[in-house]
Amino acid sequence: MIERARAAHEAGFVSLSLGDHHNMSTQYAQNTPMLGRLLAEWPDRPAGCLFLVPLWHPLLMAEQIGTLAATHGDRFIVQAAIGWGADQFNAFGTTERDRARRIDEAVPLVKQLLAGEVVDSEFFDIVGGRVGLRPEITPEWWIGAGADRALKRAAHLGDVWYAGPGLDVVSGKERLERYRSFGGERAVIRKDALVLDDGDLARETAAAIIASGYRGLTSDQLIIGNADDAGEQIEPLLDAGFDEVVIRCMSVPQDLALETLETLGSLI
To answer: Contact, 211 vs 233, CB < 8 A?
Structure first.
């Protein structure tokens, strides 16, 4: 992860972000401590991380964001999502049934705490909550969403709709129009990518990964090939109205991930 952050910075990527998962059976670096380390490699551009908000206590989440954002030299991006998976929710003593209300209640509280307010919440049993270390620059909120109710949440609670990688150009444009009908404006979309100098090798490698069931995604939902191919696949997303495309390397050996970042850098 440190190597990839360095490579992305050198390649000229605009921002850096990390994901959020819990109760994992495989190695998984947790978002806030790992980002604290990676900010040393990323001192001068926007950075942030994802929070599966229903799994976080709002005060703890606000404190983590406050410390990271206050010590970073640039804009901080909070990526907020509703989360899924019984294994994660059960481990935290909650259920997926409660996640919509938890995110709707939590996001405004976290914003209030980061603004310096003293907060009480009967829902979260908070009495006199406050955050001692806060950023000078108000963090930007990217809200993950797919269904209409979630798109309304993104439009009303967030600054940006954070679209998932399963959308193609057609479905992404349709969802973007729905988001804007609810009053939203800016949107970014995440895409998994394998981009190499040898486009045929990228396609062959990606095909084998997809055949094994890669995250439920298909080839038309990914960025695959050489730099020219990637440009041809990214441009329609921007033409559809997305402001940025966020890249996550496919699950490949480190050398191919680093080459993907370097190759994509030629498009920036």
So the answer is: no
Tell me the per-residue pLDDT of 55-75, one tens digit each, with 9 for 90 and over.
999 999 999 999 999 999 899
pLDDT in tens, 227-267: 999 999 999 999 999 999 999 999 999 999 999 999 999 99
Residue 46: Cβ-neighbour burial (10 angstroms; 0-12, 13-18, 19+): middle
| Closest by Cα among 215, 165, 197, 203 to 261 | 197
Type of residue numbered 244 = E
Tokens of 97: 């049934």
One-letter amino acid at 15 equals S
- Which residue, 124, 82, 118, is CA-closest to 105? 124
Whether pTM > 0.90 for this model: the answer is: yes
DSSP string, 115-152: TT--EEETTTTEEEE--SS--SSPPEEEEE--SHHHHH
- pLDDT tens per residue, range 186-229: 999 999 999 999 999 999 999 999 999 999 999 999 999 999 99
187 and 161 Cβ atoms separated by less than 8 Å: yes
